[in-house]
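During the reporting period the student researcher (J.K.) took over the structure-prediction task from the postdoctoral fellow and processed the backlog of single-chain submissions. One of the processed entries is reproduced below for the supervisory committee.
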Amino acid sequence: MGKPSVVWMVPVENGEDIEETKQKFGILLQKSDFQQVMSLQERESIAVKMHFGEINTSGYIKPPVVKVLIDIIKEQKARPFLAETTAVYIGMRKDAVEHLEVVSMHGFDFGQVGAPTIIVDGLRGEYSASVQIDKKHFKEIYVAGGIREVDGLVGIAHFKGQELVGFGGALKNIAMGLASRVGKVRQHMNVKPHVVQERCIFCQKCIQKCSVNAITERDKKAVIDQDVCIGCGDCVAVCPNLAVGFNWREGVIPLEEKMMEYAHGILNMFKKAYFINFAYTITQFCDCMQGKNPIVVPDVGILASADPLALDKATNDLVLERAGRDIWKEIHPQCDWRRQIEYAQELGIGQLEYTIKKIMA
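J.K. obtained the following structure tokens:
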């Protein structure tokens, strides 16, 4: 075993305004090993992978904060762009046109952040490239075609809860976020939800949310067609009565492993990459969730590392410490969030041993 990976951190306190956050983020990028690891060269194309949030959400990283990173990249004469992919659920991110409307609505115009946004899997997620990996679940993976020729990657993730895998951080941001549409569906295919009939109040929210029309009505109850369902989990997030369940052991563990196989294959495409977790406004669900998304843990800070596994492990350790309990087990009780980091280590993505270097702004 080599030396522990270094994870850099600036603390963030509840109630800080955006100017304080910008200042701290800038200090983190200047004092960490970010510039050394990336060694940016003139005219290199740098994909900044992020999540713009769904309409009516607020947990996403805000444009003025993202601009701090963009400015530093541009100072080195490199060419950054904001990279995202289409989603597989109903919402304003299902194709590139509506997704770019969300980008604009949330303030990520070129004039605000200094970089263009590119939906790297095409108009409807059809722009896909295959990558050979030869792992347990996949022999090949399908990634967004637009990232094949990129010189470097910076992943910036909002660390938060996630209804299928417990939490989402740096690795999920890359694994699911840079998969093409077919890649996303292939990752989810084991996860087949069902409706617990005695709990269903037939509010029809799941029917309205389902992107593939897999949910119908039978005797004033919702029913999921297992042959049509793609396992995206949106019905879980919108159900107000916890009436949607999974065969979790058969579904979610393979999902976490598949997700990490995608992360492994995607990260091997890049000669230089760096990762940042924003562990504040830590919400119960993913930023794909529309509407109310409660904050479940006080703010922790901004963390950064060249090792995405060590980064996720360190961020999660600090979040659980701040919560004083296993908050993910509490709010997503049937998930096993540990499997994603265990399998990432088995794949050699990074290591679980880390040292935190705290930077005081």
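The committee noted the following: The CA atoms of residues 67 and 114 lie 7 Å apart.
J.K. will present the remaining backlog at the next meeting.
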